[in-house]
Amino acid sequence: MATTKIDQERCKGCEMCIAVCPKKILGLSDKINAQGYHFVEQKGPDCIGCTFCALVCPDVVIEVYK
Ligand code: SF4
Ligand code: SF4
After folding, report:
1. What CA–CA distance (Å, rounded) separates 9 from 63?
2. How many domains does the chain fold into?
3. What's 8's DSSP letter?
4. Ligand 1 atom with least separation from CA of 49
5. Closest Cα to atom 5, ligand 1: which residue?
6. Closest by alpha carbon to 26, among 7, 39, 37, 12?
7. What is d(CA 47, CA 26) in angstroms, rounded to the nearest whole number?
């Protein structure tokens, strides 16, 4: 099973990764980071390692491990 590693302090909450995830397992946290943004979390275990989220993120916040 693949998983993501998200650098939550660098996330701007733009939601681009959320939009492209085919499994719909990414979502914004209720919490905010030090920059004041709601950051992305992986909400479920069903990551297939497609890396779409990592590729679309403008700030290279997400790493995917298979
Ligand atoms: S690697 Fe693919 S399935 Fe996994 S969280 Fe990113 S977009 Fe979703
Ligand atoms: S695309 Fe990057 S900056 Fe935007 S919400 Fe996702 S992880 Fe955060």
Report:
1. 14
2. 1
3. G
4. 1
5. 47
6. 39
7. 9
Ligand index nearest the alpha carbon of residue 37: 2
| Closest of 65, 24, 18 to residue 38, by C-alpha | 18
In the DSSP assignment, the letter for residue 10 is: G
Residues spanned by the domain of 38:
3-65
Kindly list the protein residues whose Cβ atom lies closer than 6 A to any atom of ligand 1: 2, 4, 20-23, 25-26, 42, 47-53, 64
Q: What is the CATH number of the domain that holds 24?
A: 3.30.70.20
- Which tokens go with 16? 């681009």
Expressed in angstroms and rounded, the spacing between residue 49 Cα and the centre of ligand 1 is 6
Q: Is the pTM of this model over 0.90?
A: yes
Give me ligand 1 centre to Cα 32, in Å. Answer: 22
pLDDT tens digits along 17-33: 999 999 999 999 999 99
